[in-house]
Amino acid sequence: MLLSFHCITHQITPLHTLSSFPHHHGLCRLSTLSLPSKPYPRFPLPVLASSSASPEATVSGISEEEILNDYDTSEEEQGADYHFYGENGEENFGFNSSFELAEVKRFQSPVVEVKELEELPDQWRRSRLAWLCKELPAHRAPTFIRLLNAQRKWIMQDDCTYIAVHCMRIRENESAFRVYKWMVQQRWFRFDFALVTKLADYMGKERKYLKCRELYNDIVNQGLVPNESTFHILIVAYLSSTGPSCLEEACSIYNQMIHLGNYKPRLSLHNSLFRALVSKTGGSFKHHLKQAEFIYQNLTTCGLKVHNDIYGGLIWLHSYQDIIDKERIVSLRKEMQSAGIEESTEVLVSVLRACAKDGDLAEAESIWTKILCSNSKPPPQAFVYLMEVYSRAGKPMGSLETFRVMQEQSSPNVVSYYKIIEVLCKAKETGLAESLMVEFINSGTKSLTRSFIDMMTMYTNLSLHDKVESTFFRCLEECHPNQTVYYLYLDSLVQTGNLDKAELIFSQMHADEAIGVDVKSCNNILRGYLTYEHHAKARKIYDLMCQKKYKIESSLLEKLDDVLSLSEKEARKSSSLKLSQEQREILIGLLLGGLRVKLDDEKRSYAIDFVFREDNKINSFLKRHIHNQFHEWLARKVQVDDGNGDIPCQFTTIPHSCFQLYADQFWPQGLPVIPKLINRWLTPRVLAYWYMYGGYRTSSGDILLKLKFDKEDVTRIAKTIKAKSLNCRVKRRGRVFWMGFLGTDAAEFWKLTEPFVLADLRDSLEANLEAVGGRSGLENVAFSSNSDADDGNTSDQSGD
Question: Which residues form the Homing endonuclease LAGLIDADG domain (predicted)?
Answer without folding.
Answer: 584-749
